[in-house]
Amino acid sequence: MSSLLCNARIQLTDTLEQMQQGTLMRKVKSKSWKKQRYFKLQEDCMTIWYQSKRTGKTESAFSISDVETVREGHQSEVLQSVAEEFPPERCFTIVFYGRRGNLDLVAGSAEEAQCWIQGLHQLIEVATTMDQREKIDQWIRDWFQKADKNKDGRMNFKEVQRLLKMMNVDMNEDHALRLFQDADKSESGTLEGEEFVLFYKALTQREEVQSLFQEYSEDGKKLTLLELTDFLREEQLEDEGTEELAMELIDKYEPSETARARHVLSADGFLMYLCSLEGSIFNPQHRGLWQDMSQPLCHYFISSSHNTYLIEDQLRGHSSIEGYIRALKRGCRCLEVDCWDGPNGEPMVYHGHTFTSKIPFREVVSTLGKYAFKTSDYPVILSLENHCSMEQQEVLVQQLKDILGEQLLTTTIDGHVPSQLPSPEELKHKILLKGKKIGRLEDTLDGPGDEAPDASDDDNGAEAEEERRRAKKDKETLAQALSDCVIYCKSVPFRGFQEARSHSRPSEISSLSEAKARKLIRDEGNEFVRHNAWQLTRIYPSGMRADSSNYSPQEMWNVGCQIVALNFQTAGMEMDLCDGLFSQNGSCGYVLKPPFMRDKETLFNPSDPSSREGSGPITLTIQVISGQQLPKVANSKEGAIIDPLVRVEIYGVPADQAHQETKYIENNGFNPRWDETLQFQLHVPELALIRFVVEDYDKTSRNDFVGQFTLAFANIKPGYRHIHLLSKDGTSIPPSSLFVHIRITEPPGPEQD
């Protein structure tokens, strides 16, 4: 059985063997909660479980594929709080994907800590580089371990029946027994090792893929290079270098060496291709950086977080550095910091006038310095809500300059007053401060502002007087040194589009509440789009959202608002849209707006789709064919099997908002077949996001969420595609997927003479 249990790519080192023997360590939750737990790496080298020393009861287990990274030393707030008690060389933090809390551990010695740190790094490397076949093998191993009740490395029919229930399969006993007996080659009445793999393969036979394969294969056994090329051209609409692509796919996905040498693809290889990244609905070319990054900042949607320091709700939530680390790792490029006077002259970050906990500003800046450019090279905007006294503002600036050094932008990139905002490319590796500023940008720069588009000849006297009065008032509450660090993002109150246009200062930015933004969208949609073609706008959630809930960012993107701040800590449809939009372009946090939203004189208004120049609406046809290994619903009853349905939701301009769903399939989360076709009209496809949601149908109460995947219409690949589902937290749940066929039909072009 061991061949099945341990991943073939894992070399069993002394380190891993030591981890398999188990280690006693302290699990630390706070300064006062430090309890001993026994940690042990399982035989499969992909699962770790730990149990209480006192009770001997297994507390919890986690899979290596859930672990994002391991941090050494005192690199979490919890471990910093016990720094005096435990030296850094004995401490480490296991960080999980999604919103799951960290696991902070203290080993008995530096050697034991190193053993676990190095071993975990080795295993994470294996888990993150697994291809689709290895992921499925791993999935089989996980299930085998869960169902092998007596841990003898074999499985009798009773254990197999239990396993089927666990796997979301409702199969009649005769059929299950037939599959079991076919796989039991040794006729021992149990399945072991490769026999279990055979059983699993029979169970996961994909008829819908098989019939597609037969359609293109003349002998029904293989696809020749020509047949595969035909399939790629006709079905997958791969029109460039199709033959080279076919060769590449055979080399990459054909398991049989002889077939590879003959340049043919077997049914197994064909399925592997369809389940791979190349066979996914998301265009692989758009995963990396694929957009022009040399346009002004205001021409991009920018991934933005609200109250970044909170990891729970707005009133009693825990403020944490983890909020910043998580947001930056997700490619977020605009972070919020609420600063207040703290004890000992040290500014603190928290949500004012509430019971949220506090973090020193210095720690936030250090975290920013460390993580700002790990996921993306493009600029980070630090939105500073400054409530500090003059004295602590001076400390604030000093900390920013000392810790960030060259990363902090303190002057314009060319020493001149800009006639337009610089580009993400020009601001690479820079941190920009957004906040109030005394007077105008040209006052900060040496020399007269001859480049300024708002030269004084069109300033009337009353207005100039008003500006002077405002600058004088700001001087009383704002430290000059802090003001001087605000360059391209001077916060100004919004006084209407006309006034903004008359001053024409691209380096100013207004923040609007979601309600104010909605009113402007309703009353002055086109003006709003035009304004956002040359100046930045930030939108933030209503103060009434004490539970940290989110508003839909789509309506704000529809008018070109760039900085649409969301509560990253709150999972749900709104964050799915955010993740969906920003998962393209190298997840760099910047997505270029469509051309009709980058033109200051545009006629586009989202409430009137015909204002977008171009042909009529396009038709998106989605055939929802089948589902594979859907996860069980969280907290469901033992043995409950889901009744899945698929809903496709379109988010975009109001005329494009729509959703349709399939019927539900009773008692089958393992391989449901829907074979239903849904069709949508898209008037402004450039702004549309498509969200695929799987739910467990419930006739008496709300359906339960099973999984989802969201992407921008621009990133969809047509043809037969798999959609790899994500959890509520946006983390992957392999090998759960949907199999669909996508067709995009453009309207007929204008008649040619």
TrEMBL record:
Residues 598-727 form the C2 domain. Residues 442-475 are annotated as: Disordered. It catalyses: a 1,2-diacyl-sn-glycero-3-phospho-(1D-myo-inositol) + H2O = 1D-myo-inositol 1-phosphate + a 1,2-diacyl-sn-glycerol + H(+); a 1,2-diacyl-sn-glycero-3-phospho-(1D-myo-inositol-4,5-bisphosphate) + H2O = 1D-myo-inositol 1,4,5-trisphosphate + a 1,2-diacyl-sn-glycerol + H(+). Keywords: Calcium, Cytoplasm, Endoplasmic reticulum, Glycoprotein, Hydrolase, Lipid degradation, Lipid metabolism, Membrane, Metal-binding, Nucleus, Repeat, Transducer. It is a peripheral membrane protein. It comes from the Eukaryota. GO terms for molecular function: calcium ion binding; phosphatidylinositol-4,5-bisphosphate phospholipase C activity. Glycans are attached at S186. GO terms for biological process: intracellular signal transduction; lipid catabolic process. Binds 3 Ca(2+) ions per subunit. Two of the Ca(2+) ions are bound to the C2 domain. It is found in: Cytoplasm; Endoplasmic reticulum; Membrane; Nucleus. Residues 135-170, 171-206 form the EF-hand domain. The active site is at H306, H351. GO terms for cellular component: endoplasmic reticulum; nucleus; plasma membrane. Residues 466-475 have a biased composition (Basic and acidic residues). Its EC number is 3.1.4.11. Residues 17-125 form the PH domain. This is Phosphoinositide phospholipase C. It comes from Zonotrichia albicollis (White-throated sparrow).
